[in-house]
Specification:
Helix content: over 70%
Distance between the termini: 13 Å
Mean pLDDT: 86
Low-confidence stretches: none
Oligomer: single chain
Structural class: mainly alpha
Radius of gyration: 24 Å
Length: 298
Amino acid sequence: MKLFLKSLLTLFFAITTIFFALRLTPGDPVERLLGPEAKVEEVHKVRADFGLDKSIPAQYVDFAEGILTFDLGKSYVKKKPVVNLIQEHLSPTLVLALISIILATPIGVIVGVVAAVKKSKLPDTSIRVLTLTLLSFPIFSLAPMLVLVFSIWLGIFPVSQWLSYKHMVIPVVTLVLPLSSVIVRVMRNKYLEEESQLWVLVLNAKGLSSRAVIYRLIKICMPTILNVVAIQLSVVLAGTVITETIFDIPGLGSLLFEAINNRDYPLVQGVIAYSTVIYMLVYVMVDYVNEKLDPRIA
């Protein structure tokens, strides 16, 4: 119940913040939609149709009532219900995010363990330098570099679109590289921290094989890794906005980017609300899995 209430509060603060942030941002959605040549009477009529002629508190009440009834309104520009637009664009974003997380997690865990086992040796140093380098590149710099190498120079993968598995490779790699780098560094540090504990010395003294000790250490480290993955999900979802825009992927990220440019209030609010709900659901699942892995957390 405590986690459920915390999730509701998170959703409330997220949608409230985006509601007021949009209305405090310079730019009129009606003027942007109709253009500078529009007549004053036409502007007033459209503002009334959109409910923008009301005070901001009154608009917020209407918005809150819509959230409670699962009615996110209609897009100003696309003239379609926001829920329908989100459903149309949800699949590519979920596929992109899920594949990235599914690939990045085991890669990060394995490489992190290798770095920890080979502490202060060449593999460890190389891995730390590589992960730090990857984390130094923001997605909007990393994506064009990957396109330049693998699409333009080598011609292995397509530049954009979302038509086949080949079109997924570079966008997925763009998200996997920084995410796995974070997991590698966390896994290495957590592994070394646990390795210095007394219970590990006891296992070694009992003659337990190195493989069995490593397996137990990985299991102990997994709740921390899962929490990192859950936290990084927000980074992945934010990264999809840039990735989908660069690679012309018809997902929620590109839809949100377009909606922000058009000052499409209902669409921006709807996408943010959906993203927040997805994030909360993942966090609830992570908490559940953590309790199964380590009953002390419960």
